[in-house]
Design brief:
The structure is a homodimer of 331-residue chains. The first copy, chain A, is α/β, with parallel strands linked by helices. Chain A has helices at residues 8-15, 19-27, 34-47, 53-60, 76-91, 105-117, 164-177, 193-208, 224-237, 249-261, 278-281, 298-310; strands spanning 65-70, 95-100, 122-126, 145-148, 158-162, 183-187, 218-219, 243-246, 271-275, 293-295, 318-321, 324-326. The first copy, chain A, folds into 3 domains: 8-51, Orthogonal Bundle (434 Repressor (Amino-terminal Domain)), CATH 1.10.260.40; 65-162 and 298-320, Rossmann fold (3-Layer(aba) Sandwich), CATH 3.40.50; 164-295, Rossmann fold, CATH 3.40.50. The first copy, chain A, is built from 12 helices and 12 strands. In chain A, helix 5 crosses helix 12. The first copy, chain A, is elongated, with a radius of gyration of 26 Å.
């Protein structure tokens, strides 16, 4: 059986004071001698007494609970941000109440009412990426709202997200630093903001080096099979290609397979760099790695969005998390 | 600005009744005419009134909050179970308070006190897999405790986890059904319960078919590079191998690369099946897939552990979630 929960009465009895004195000593709500206060506090600590957090929350009108709204909690990026934010919030004794897929026009009204009735202390909206903007819902709440791994159309929304331009720049800088010069790029849809910004960032660094893509940027899908398919086009159009920047690790996996099937060695003939750092985030491979990649900073986004929400003076606008290169076998 | 929160006074005023009558109508705590009750309820709905959930929790001594204890919240398996359980709980208006990495002998005592002070309604312990047993902490709490994706030494603990024996059986059954007969197995450490059970399950099906492994089972690590290394040994020892069951998708990725580097076609020469279904869970590739694999049921574990926790009559002991085959290109 579990031990009985220590109550304020237990503390009062053990300290030999009245319940009222014990309460005053621990809550600091009335005058009481320093010696008595100290005596009661030491007794409370010895017994393992904890204030009834629920009663305290109620008295303050705060729930120590954060509403978390996701578009799709099963999205793998969302999961990383969610787990990291929940960890950070838990370390500060903040619970999360997760509402998944209730951000649509109809559901959001109901969600807002329910979260307010619950007296949540703040809201975190977690997106699935920086491909397309999300609606701002900040003005539906009278508690702070922060956004993670998405962007809204309100420039004042407190938003922590990845830096796609910088991701492209880093990838290209790395390929150039290893001596590659005949570089191709495979990425997702041409109307996807993340794909477009990564391509532009990489292209700018390439141009600064006095170079151009060895074959036009190929826009397609965030899919492994697209990488395999596109690499065949690249090899046909630019057989002397010596590096490929892939917009995601999934595309890079397909590209690597396509290269090997065409008899090209990786990285001997063609270097490959992806984006996402799936091997660490997803396969938990921190020790042995294969694919060289860019980590977009999802865990950092999760930590910072939680910290910004609890910050009494959060910074309005978009804060970009710095990506970093993860060097492994392929580039 | 956000709308003002609708209070019980607003409802009473709009319905033309006293505060006390409005409260009785909505709480059902005293006698009141059915007509008045209905009138007040309709008015409350029209105004969008919600009970103050925090006050209601306090009155009932329940927090509608579940403590979630993780060994390592950054573990990718843990993240999937966590996100799925949080989604399920959120749909039932239950928040989670996540304590990460506080399950050690020292920290657990503090965690227990804090969670009890918070008046949590239950506890979910999420493990990182079925490789090694976790200590039972059920008797430290006076609320229900359930375990996900782990196992304890207490046979009565309510535990939802993956079925490693069945995973091995399914993988082997699939390879045999595609006509393969000269089969090898690459997996993790020989003292890892998940690796051992998967190997045993697969071996039993192989034996039932009157066959034996074409080369002894190779125990190593849950790592991609181990797959690449081990496949070279397999090809040296059993050049006529026609299928490899890999204990995880990471091992299978390495094995595939090793096979291609050795000039073998996949699945033409050698079929490959992994375990984990990373492409769906982690790369979000539900449409186009590459690696044939076994889905161990992590999302189902997350859903069921939440449901069991809230079930007034949970089932003691281990409940295994059924794995399923995900057929793609490699087998």
């Amino acid at each position: 059986m579990a031990d009985e929960l220590i109550t304020l009465s237990d503390v009062a009895a053990a300290a030999g004071v009245s319940l009222s004195t014990a309460s005053k000593a621990l809550n600091g709500t009335d005058r009481i001698s320093a010696a008595t206060r100290e005596h009661v506090r030491v007794t409370a600590d010895r017994l393992g007494f904890r204030h009834n957090a629920l009663a305290r929350s109620f008295a303050r009108g705060r729930s120590q609970t954060i509403g978390v709204l996701t578009y799709r909690a099963s999205n793998p990026f969302t999961r990383v941000v969610l787990a990291t934010a929940a960890t950070e919030l838990g370390a500060r004794e903040q619970a999360i109440l997760l509402y998944d897929a209730r951000l649509g026009e109809h559901d959001i009204t109901e969600s807002v009412l329910q979260l307010r009735a619950r007296r949540i202390d703040g809201v975190i909206v977690i997106g699935t990426g920086t491909s397309f903007p999300a609606p701002s819902i900040t003005d539906r709440f009278d508690v702070p709202v922060t956004y993670a791994f998405t962007f809204t159309e309100d420039p004042d929304d407190v938003t922590i997200t990845s830096d796609d331009d910088q991701i492209g720049r880093l990838a290209m800088t790395h390929l150039l630093s290893t001596g590659r010069r005949r570089i191709a790029h495979l990425t997702a849809e041409p109307n996807d903001a993340a794909a477009v910004k990564r391509a532009a960032g990489a292209g700018a660094v390439l141009a600064d080096a006095g170079l151009d893509w060895v074959t036009p940027v190929r826009f397609g899908r965030w899919r492994e099979n697209w990488g395999e398919e596109a690499v065949r086009e690249v090899l046909a159009d630019a057989p002397d290609v010596d590096a490929i920047f892939c917009g995601s690790d999934a595309i890079a996996r397909g590209a690597e397979r396509g290269l090997r099937m065409a008899g090209r060695d990786v990285p001997g003939d063609v270097a490959l760099i992806g984006v996402d750092n799936w091997e660490q985030l997803m396969h938990d491979q921190r020790v042995s790695r294969h694919l060289t990649t860019i980590d977009v900073g999802l865990e950092e986004i999760g930590r910072r969005v939680a910290a910004q929400l609890l910050d009494p003076d959060p910074k309005p606008g978009i804060q970009y998390v710095a990506p970093h290169v993860v060097i492994a076998d392929t580039a």
